[in-house]
Every structure is written in structure tokens, then in C-alpha cells.
Design a protein that fits this description.
By secondary structure, the chain is of the alpha/beta class. 28% of the residues lie in helices and 21% in strands. The longest helix has 15 residues. The structure holds fe (ii) ion.
Length: 382
């Protein structure tokens, strides 16, 4: 950061002609300010890369997709073999894929995030899984760079570079700010569109509730509908609308944070109710197709259902792969009562499956625990 500030000052001094009037202010974004520093840094430090990953053949008829989130690079990696044994054709790693902010000392080079990626890549369990199962990824706060961070995180451009380098993002993703992407796979009549949203890069600052000496049991953020507040940012909103207008038979829309629930005040679309409504409205305008929402982040998992605009929308939250904060299912369920949740809230390690029955035009979402036993499942049609 210090380096970049110096170089910006030097640039300004060079640009201002001798004797010219000094302007009152110069608008420079952190991304602009830091980019020369990062260009230099790229050449000096190791840029971790995840191991090779097979491409998903575009003609594949997808019948099983797995999903998971919240994976700590320093914790046990036993879930990979379990997920592989379910034989998914595609794995969606949907955020907090590493905990890069663990031990971060505030450096603009995000050394702890680079180390986290390097450690994750070194695990044979993960590398073996990645060598076998095609993957798509998005990020959440801990691989974006900072707990609960959004668009005002000054080092977001660098964390984007690290993400895109590590996961081998497509040219289209690398060419635009943020990491959102979409694919359509399968023959006509069996096309699955996977939309991976970026809920971090553009997101407005969260509104914190007033300080209290008691830690609020269900989070401390207040719903905020102030003008200009956004989750996706306008470019991503426009992109999403265009994606939803493409022909597909089933759409899987992935948000790192939960979409449907309004039962807690941790992070989620519930922090921005107008944006949540905008998303549900927009999903309602999609070209005719089935729809499944997937999310993570919570260190617990469950199935959610909401009726909106005459449609029933389903969401599977799968979290965590290896960073569970407890095993008391009844207590976790009782702690967070939620009219939108169908069944219990599972704090134990888990991954999710999306099984597609093309004949019956039905989807079954299920949550699998840390021995792959089914915790909850739900079938719905389209
Ligand atoms: Fe998170």
C-alpha cells in the first residue's frame, strides 16, 4: 500500500505542469492506485494455481451435480473422497473455498490468501478430486479477502487476480471486473445453465446494528434499502438478465450467501431487502425453465422454500465442508426458527447433491453429512 501511495504521488507531481494551479481533489480508486504495485508484485511472488481440472464436455447430459462451501485449507480434507464417491459430473465450490484472511496482517499483497491457496493446492485429497471432477467456483468473503467484506475492500482487484489465477478462470471472467460466470451444458431439452454470481466484488457496505454488549445470537446487520445499495452492481445485474433470457431447461443459480431466508441478521440477501426482491422478480422473468438456488457461507445447511410472484422457489444451503462449529442439530435448528426452512438446520460437515430426473422433470436436492448419510432431501418439479 505504501509503495502504491508513493508512486501515485510521484505520478501526480509529474503530471502537474510547473506553476499550474493545484486541483482541490483528484479522484483515484484503490484499484487504479494499486495497479502498478500489483503489476510489479505479480512478477515477484508465487501465484498459486490449483491442479489440473477436466473440462465438462458441452454435450454432457447432467444428472448429478455436487456442491460445497466453507473449506479451511488447514482443516481435514476427508470430504473430497466422499463427494467423489457420489460420482457427480460437476462440482460447484461456492465460496469460502479457502480462509485466506486467517492470519492476514493487512498487507496489500494478501500474503495470507496466497499461502492459503498454495496450501489448499498441496493437499493430495483435493488435488486428486480436482483431477477427476470438473469444477466451477465462485467466492465468498474469506477467499475474497476479509470477513464480511464487499466492494469497498481496497484490495479486491488483487484478490480477483489471485482467484482467477488459482482457479483458471475463463477469458471472459478475466476480462471483466468481478468473477461471475455462466455455462450452459447439455442437449436441447436437457440444457442446464449454471449461473455463478459474485456477491462480493460490487456489494455495498453492510449496515451494522447499534453496539450492544450482548453478542446478538443471529447476527448484527440491519436490513438496508437506502438508495444506491447493491449486491450485484449494475453490470452484473444486466448480465444476469441477459443470461436468464437464454434458452435453458434447468437453471442453477449460485449465490455464496443465502437468498431466501430472512430469519437471521448475518450476511445474506436479507441485508438488502429491495435487492432480494429484485433478484426474485428477475428470476421470475426467466425464459421457461426449472430453477434451483444454491448457497453456502453459514457453517450449517438446510433446504428453503419461498413463494414469490406466483412461483415456488427452492434453495439448498450447503456449508461447511470442513469447518463445522458444532454437531447439535436440534439446538442449531431451534436457535434459528425459520418459516422458509423445510426441515432442520444441520451444523455438521456436509456437501450437497442436485439430482436431475429429466424424464419426470424433477430435481432432488439433498444434503449429505460427513459420512455421506442423507441429512435432508427434497424433490420438486418444474
Ligand atoms: Fe462467508
Amino acid at each position: 500500500m505504501r509503495l502504491a501511495l508513493l508512486s501515485a504521488a510521484a505520478l501526480f507531481a509529474l503530471a502537474a505542469p510547473l506553476g499550474a494551479q493545484t486541483p482541490q481533489s483528484v479522484e483515484v480508486t484503490p484499484d487504479q492506485l494499486l495497479s502498478p504495485y500489483y503489476e510489479a508484485l505479480k512478477a515477484k511472488v508465487a501465484m498459486p494455481v490449483a491442479g489440473p481440472n477436466p473440462a465438462l464436455a458441452p454435450a454432457t447430459t447432467l444428472t448429478r451435480i455436487a456442491v460445497g462451501s466453507c473449506n479451511h485449507q488447514s482443516a481435514a480434507q476427508h470430504m473430497w473422497a466422499q463427494i467423489a464417491s457420489a460420482n457427480p459430473q460437476l462440482f460447484l465450490m461456492i465460496g469460502d473455498n479457502v480462509y485466506g484472511d486467517a492470519g492476514w496482517d493487512g498487507d496489500a499483497g494478501l500474503a495470507s490468501l496466497r499461502s492459503a491457496y498454495a496450501l489448499q493446492a498441496s493437499h493430495p485429497e483435493f488435488a486428486g478430486f480436482r483431477a477427476k471432477v470438473p469444477m466451477m467456483t465462485t467466492w465468498d468473503d474469506h477467499d475474497f479477502g476479509l470477513n464480511d467484506a464487499g466492494g469497498s475492500f481496497p484490495f479486491r482487484g488483487w484478490s480477483e487476480t489471485l482467484f482467477e489465477t488459482f482457479w483458471g478462470s475463463s477469458k471472459a471472467v478475466k476480462a471483466r471486473p468481478g468473477i461471475y460466470e455462466s455455462t450452459i451444458t447439455g442437449p436441447q431439452g436437457k440444457r442446464v445453465q449454471v449461473i455463478m454470481l459474485d456477491t462480493r466484488f460490487f456489494r455495498s457496505d453492510l449496515k451494522r446494528g447499534p453496539w450492544t454488549k450482548d453478542r446478538l445470537p443471529l447476527g448484527g446487520y440491519l436490513p438496508d434499502d437506502s438508495a444506491g445499495k447493491t449486491v450485484l452492481g449494475e453490470a452484473q445485474w444486466a448480465w444476469l438478465a441477459a443470461e436468464l433470457a437464454k434458452p435453458a431447461d434447468l437453471r442453477i443459480v449460485v449465490s455464496s450467501t443465502q437468498v431466501l431466508t430472512t430469519a437471521h441478521q448475518f450476511e445474506g440477501w436479507t441485508n438488502f431487502p429491495a435487492e432480494r426482491t429484485r433478484l426474485l422478480d428477475l428470476l421470475g422473468t426467466r425464459e421457461a425453465s426449472g430453477l434451483v438456488l444454491l448457497s453456502g457461507d453459514r457453517h450449517s445447511g438446510g433446504v428453503y422454500k419461498v413463494d414469490h410472484g406466483g412461483q415456488t422457489i427452492w434453495e439448498l444451503t450447503s456449508s461447511s465442508l470442513n469447518l463445522s462449529f458444532g454437531d447439535d442439530i436440534e439446538r442449531t435448528t431451534a436457535r434459528e426458527p425459520d418459516a422458509a426452512r423445510v426441515g432442520k438446520f444441520f451444523p455438521i460437515e456436509n456437501y450437497g447433491l442436485v439430482d436431475i430426473d429429466w424424464q419426470a422433470k424433477q430435481v432432488t436436492v439433498s444434503l449429505k453429512g460427513n459420512t455421506s448419510a442423507t441429512l435432508v432431501n427434497q424433490t420438486f418439479g418444474w
